[in-house]
């Protein structure tokens, strides 16, 4: 399923690969070069907006959740904070994720994302500058409606991990995620009650972790925004 480049090792994440799948080919940003410094990325995301109101999930979903896509400056440009979910959790055990969780009654998306991030990895809300929301998305397993919040910090804060929720936290350079040996995507064919048809699935293969599912979809949209391409305009298979 690769596009020709040797793939990095990835991690031990359990990926339920379907029988029917096909390579998606080159990434949307193929052939483009961008500035991955934090200032340049903040300038790119100014086109997006954030909704401070309290919201509920669409009727077909059981709950609304918020996650924080937190960027910080690093040696090789902006880096993004990711966590590996604890194996103690009931859903998505061991998967790579963003800090986040269920929105409590009366909370805004932003308030929930900041609260959950502080609870999971110890980042104080007052250090965080919120810039925008990315497109909401849903998951098959937990029936969640997820809203990603895009934010920055001026420098990487000291992390304090809650072992009940998080096994590991790491900062990953965005420039690393667009490497040919790191990113790949496929079309997966589904025949389920909740969804039938073809769906793009994105993967980021690190040296010791594999990012896929909702987290990879959020990263893919962010990288498309940074490169100035429309992540909805995927080529047909």
UniProtKB/TrEMBL annotation:
A Pfam family matched by this chain, by name?
NUDIX
According to the entry, every stretch annotated as the Nudix hydrolase domain falls at 62-195
Any idea which GO molecular function terms this record carries? Answer: coenzyme A diphosphatase activity; metal ion binding
Its cofactor is: Mn(2+); Mg(2+)
Please give the residue ranges the record annotates as the region Disordered. Answer: 1-27
State the UniProt keywords alphabetically.
Hydrolase, Magnesium, Manganese, Metal-binding
The record's listing under InterPro entries reads: CoAse, NUDIX_hydrolase-like_dom_sf, NUDIX_hydrolase_CS, NUDIX_hydrolase_dom
Q: Note the SUPFAM superfamilies from the entry.
A: Nudix
Q: Give a yes or no for keyword Manganese in this entry.
A: yes
Q: Which PANTHER family match?
A: MITOCHONDRIAL COENZYME A DIPHOSPHATASE NUDT8, NUDIX HYDROLASE
- What name does this protein carry? Unannotated protein
Organism, by scientific name, is freshwater metagenome
């Amino acid at each position: 399923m690769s596009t020709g480049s040797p793939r990095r090792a990835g991690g031990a994440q359990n990926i339920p690969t379907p029988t029917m799948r096909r390579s998606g080919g080159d990434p949307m940003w193929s052939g483009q070069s961008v500035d991955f410094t934090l200032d340049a990325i903040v300038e790119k995301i100014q086109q997006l907006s954030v909704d401070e109101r309290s919201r509920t999930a669409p009727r077909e979903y059981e709950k609304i959740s918020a996650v924080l896509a937190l960027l910080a400056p690093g040696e090789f440009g902006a880096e993004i904070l990711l966590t590996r979910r604890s194996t103690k959790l009931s859903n998505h055990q061991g998967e790579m994720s963003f800090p986040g969780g269920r929105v409590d009654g009366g909370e805004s998306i932003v308030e929930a994302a900041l609260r959950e991030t502080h609870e999971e990895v110890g980042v104080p809300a007052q250090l965080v500058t919120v810039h925008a929301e990315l497109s909401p998305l849903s998951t098959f397993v937990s029936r969640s409606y997820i809203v990603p919040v895009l934010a920055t910090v001026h420098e990487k804060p000291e992390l304090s991990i809650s072992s009940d929720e998080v096994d590991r936290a790491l900062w990953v350079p965005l420039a690393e995620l667009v490497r040919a040996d790191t990113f790949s995507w496929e079309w997966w064919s589904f025949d389920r009650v909740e969804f039938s048809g073809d769906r793009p699935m994105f993967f980021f293969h690190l040296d010791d972790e594999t990012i896929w599912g909702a987290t990879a979809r959020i990263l893919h949209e962010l990288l498309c925004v940074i490169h100035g391409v429309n992540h909805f305009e995927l080529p047909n298979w």
